Structures are given as C-alpha cells and as structure tokens.
User: Fold this.
Amino acid sequence: MSSFLSKRIEEQKKKAAEEAAKRDAEFRGLATDDEEGASAEPAGPVGQPDEGEVLPSGYIVPPKLRMPPKIAKLRKQLRSKLLAYPDEADHWHRGMKDKEELLIGRLKTVLQKMGVSLSQDEFRILAEGLLNDLLGFGAIEPLVQDKRYSEIMVNGPEIIFAEFKGKLQETQYVFDDEEHVQWT
Assistant:
C-alpha cells in the first residue's frame, strides 16, 4: 500500500507543479489592489468537478472539485485580512451566524476598498471558501460536517481520503496548494 501511495503522491506532485504553472499564468491577468475592478467572466458553479483520470496502475482518480483560479487567488490574499488579529477566530466555528455575518461584512468592505467586483456566484463561492478556511477546516469542511465519515486523511493538497462505512475512498475535495493545507 505504501508503494501505491508513494507513486500516487509523486504523480500528484508532478500534476500539481504543472497546474501551478498554469495558474500562475492565469493569475497575471487578474485584478490587483491598484487595478480597476473590471471583473472577468463569472466563475462556474461551486462543485463543478474537473475530469478524473486513470493512472498507469489502473487506479481511477475521482474528479476533483476545484476553486476557480480568480477566487482561489482572492481567498489566499484575504484570509488574514478579515481577522482583527491572528487568533481572533480560534474559538469560532461554522454555524455561529453572528461571526459568519461579521466576516462577510468585513469581506464586502475589503473587496470594495480593493475595487474588486464579483458576480453574486463568485462572491458566494469566495465567502463560503473563506468561512470554511477561517471557521472550519478549509476544503475538507464538508467532510468534517458529514458525520457518515469516520476518518479523514490529508496526504497532500490533492490527495484526501475519507473512511465511509469502513471503506477508505479518495474524495473529490482538494486544497489549492501546500500553503492552503498548512494554513487550515
């Protein structure tokens, strides 16, 4: 099993490096703090999976739910800006409506000051991602909230397994990169 996981991790590292280079190229075209808020075309719906793949070993990698690059970049920039001080949200969790509303209000203010305009769908995706990052466990928050999963294992940004009814399965959830895993 460890050789399988080693191969799987190596394959994912290569794929992640290629995707990171592609994302970097795409990010160059996004709005920054001093650019006007011209928005790119709206992001697709949350949960739109990419295509799965079949590895040379015959293992089928499930389709992964990816954050649109524009939203991933904004989320990375804004994570720490929404907190008054670094430990502010340590005792907060998802479901605390007053804290969620406070963070969403701060998000709207920061986006307005940055001059970034988003469609309603893009804003919803960004807000949900930030709330999961700040008040929960980031990309794996849906798995944590689903009590049918007894164990969750993060072996890398794109390799997340969950135990469901005693069977270990690779999930569709991914973190943006290694920094996102560490931040959460």
Observations:
- The CA atoms of residues 5 and 155 lie 9 Å apart.
- The beta strands are 53-54, 60-61, 149-156, 159-164, 167-170.
- The first helix runs from residue 2 to 27.
- Residues 26-47 have pLDDT under 50 and may be disordered.
